[in-house]
Amino acid sequence: MTIFQLFDLVITGYVDDITILLASSSYELNCEALAQVYRRLTRFTSLHGTEFSADKTQVIHLCQSRKAPPIVNVMPNVSGFPTEAKDDAIKVLGLHLDYQLKWNVHIAHVNPRVRQKMYQMRRVCGSTWGPDVLKLRHQYITSVRPIFAYACALWYVVRRTKGTRCKWSLCQALVNKLETEQSQCLKQFFGAYQRVSGDILCKEFFVEKLCVFLAGCAMKHRVTNIDTPEGQALLRTWLFVANRRGLTAEVMEAHPLNVAYREAKALVWMVADDELQLRIRADPKLAKNPALQWLRRKQLIRDVVKKMSHFKSQDLWQKFFIRYLSQAAAFNEICPVVQGIWGQHNLRI
Questions:
Q1: What are the distances in angstroms from CA 169 to CA 64, 172, 256?
Q2: Are 212 and 229 in a shared domain?
Q3: Total structural domains in the chain?
Q4: Considering 36, 70, 97, which residue would you say is the last residue of a domain?
Q5: Crossing angle of helices 210-225/229-245, nearest 10°?
Q6: Tens of pLDDT along 83-117?
Q7: Rg of the chain over all Cα atoms, to the nearest angstrom
Q8: For residue 122, is it within any domain?
Q9: What is the model's pTM?
Q10: Positive or negative CA dihedral for 276, 277, 279, 280?
C-alpha cells in the first residue's frame, strides 16, 4: 500500500482546520498517498454526519531547494481538489508557511495587519491630541503588540545560548523589519519625530524591543508546555521520527524543536522548579496541594521570564548607549534622553 511507503505521515487538527503532512521519496507518491488518506477521512466522517469541502483544500509541495519553489504538476486525484498547488505559501491557523519553511511570507503578512490597526488608531490619538502617555502605552501593549506575537512560539526561534546555528530560525533581517515596524508604531502613538531612534522610544516609554518581547512570549509558552500531555506527546513524536530517520547528532543539535525546548528547560524551567521546591519545603500546605503548586509554578515561570527580559533590555540599552557615544555624541554631548538606565522609572512624568 502507498501509505506504508511514506517516510512520515502526521495529521493535526484544531476545530474544523485539518492539516496533513506527508513525506516520501517523490511528489507523485505523496499525492497518491494524500488521495488515499483523504478518501479514508471522508469515508469516516460521512458516518458521523460531517463533510469535508474539497474546494477549500490547499496543497503545497515542500522541498529543500534554496533557489526557487519546486515546479511540480502532479496533484492528488480527488474530485473537487484544486488543479494546482500553491507556489508560495499556505495559511494554517493564521500562520503562513512557505515551501522552504522560512518566515518571510508570514512577516510580510504581519506588518500590513499592524499598519491597518495603526490606521484605525488615528481616530484615537494624534501627535498633539489624545489620551495621556500611560493610556497610549497601554493601548499599544494590549491591542497592537499582540498582532506581532501571534503564534510566535512556533516561528520565533532564535538561539540564546552558545552553539551551532539553529536551522529554520528567524534571520536577523526579518527581526530588523519587525523592530522597524514597532518603532513606527511608537512614533505615531507618542508623536515622536521620524529621526528618533527606536531604542530611545522603547527606553523612554518602557516598551520592550520586539526581539525581547517575542523571545519572552515564546519562552513562556514552551516552558508551560513542557510538562503538559500535549508537550510530552510533541517531544515523543519528534524523538520517534528522529530515531526512525536516523538523524545524526549534528542535525538533532540544530533542529529548532530541540533548541527551543532545551533552552526553555535550561534557562527557565530549572530555575522555576528549584524555587518551587524551596517553597514546598518551607510550606507544608503547598506540598499537599498539587493545584496550588501548578499555580505557583506558572507564576514563577512568568517571574523568571520577566527578569530575563529585563536584563536583556538593560543589556541592549547599554549597547545602544555605547554605540551612541562613539557615533553621535559629538553632535549633542549632553542629550538628556540617552542618560539613565533602562527601567520603569522612565515613565514618571
A1: 15, 9, 7
A2: no
A3: 3
A4: 97
A5: 90
A6: 888 877 888 888 998 887 889 999 999 999 999 99
A7: 24
A8: yes
A9: 0.88
A10: positive
